[in-house]
Amino acid sequence: MTDDLTLEEAMEDLVSAEDFLNYFEIDFDPSVVHVNRLHILQRYHNYLSKEALPEDEAAQREVYTRLLTKAYQDFVESDALTEKVFKVFHMHEPQTKFVPLTSITVNKKDAA
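Now predict its structure.
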């Protein structure tokens, strides 16, 4: 049972979005999670990578719960195509490239 484990140990055993949501006691709509589970977990990971975790385990739990709730809510209020969590969603967007004027040359044979 995860009650006897530290937060870090318990989190190592969590494998699915549902596991995380249940562990942190976050109410969720299974149909939202079913369609967006990987997106939710990736967004959660992205949020965690930008957050400084406190030393205290209770404070860490609060941060984990807050960020997972935020990641889940992103997909309650929006969808995967709009949120574009994964790189694949950015591949067909227009790309902006900069070509400095100094790199443009004229071939004299072609100019004549």
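The mean pLDDT is 82.
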